[in-house]
Amino acid sequence: MRDPAPKRVLQLRFSARASELKQVREAVRAGVEGCGCSPEATADIVLAIDEACQNVIRHAYCGECDDAIELEIERSGDRLIFSLADRAAPIDPERVRPRDLDDIRPGGLGTHFIRRVMDEVEFCRPPSGRGNLLRMVRRIS
Amino acid sequence: MEHAVRDEPQGLVVSFCGDVDLENSPRAREVLLRCVAQRKDLLVDLSAVSYIDSSGVASLVEAFQASKKNGRRFALVAVNDSAMRVLQLARLDKVFTIHNTLSDGLRGGA
Q1: CB 3.0–4.6 Å: which of A82, A92, B43, B47 could bond A136 by disulfide?
Q2: Which helix (H) or strand (E) holds B28?
């Protein structure tokens, strides 16, 4: 059976600043909880989205700025679909690969968290043709 | 995020309270590295940390490695469930010494 048409759970637009991320986490938490996710799954998803936003700030915008990040969450059946878009220059996805966890050093964990928490992670071509679009999917039970 | 540093006979106890996230982790890193510079054993109390991300974890790893380099012990104490989950995702729960309570940490050294 095909998944039903996606229903929007949340749409957010915010500046690429660290000070914005607490509010983003709170909105994501509320949206995901509203879809019936367990507290554990909700905490994991909040972490993954926070880390994905941090990657946009660090790697796409190369630091904090007033440019926008757009986050959309949709639900399609048992799948939560997260789309994170920016208007920065296209990044090389190779630059945001997870590091080897046996190499104990500060940094490089964010992408690992995203891949551990999400069932699908892919960089897509943004419909506008500008910026970057990261699409993440998490199945919920 | 708030923090407190206590000087105990067993070493320094650093407690963080609130979110150790991208906004606050530079301050957490500074506090931790200032403690490391005192060349004492270090216990980091995470019981009141409501959220920690990869940047907060990176600060802990950096302080842990700097303490080790100084020949000092470094341990986490009273790590709450949400912070523990993040350490588990990073597989650092097997790397850090972790005590269930602050008194266990003080008894066992850092």
Answers
A1: A82
A2: helix B25-36
CB A17 within 8 A of CB B21: no
Q: Do B53 and A105 touch (CB under 8 A)?
A: no
Q: Which residues in A lie closer than 8 A to residue B92 (C-beta atoms)? A: 104
Window 11-70 of B, Cβ < 8 Å to A: 19, 21-23, 51, 53-55, 57-59, 61-62, 65
Contact between residue B53 and residue A110 where contact means Cβ atoms under 8 Å apart: yes
Across the range B65-73, mean pLDDT stands at: 96
What is the DSSP annotation of A74-86? EEETTEEEEEEEE
ipTM above 0.85, yes or no: yes
Chain segment B14-46, per-residue pLDDT in tens = 999 999 999 999 999 999 999 999 999 999 999
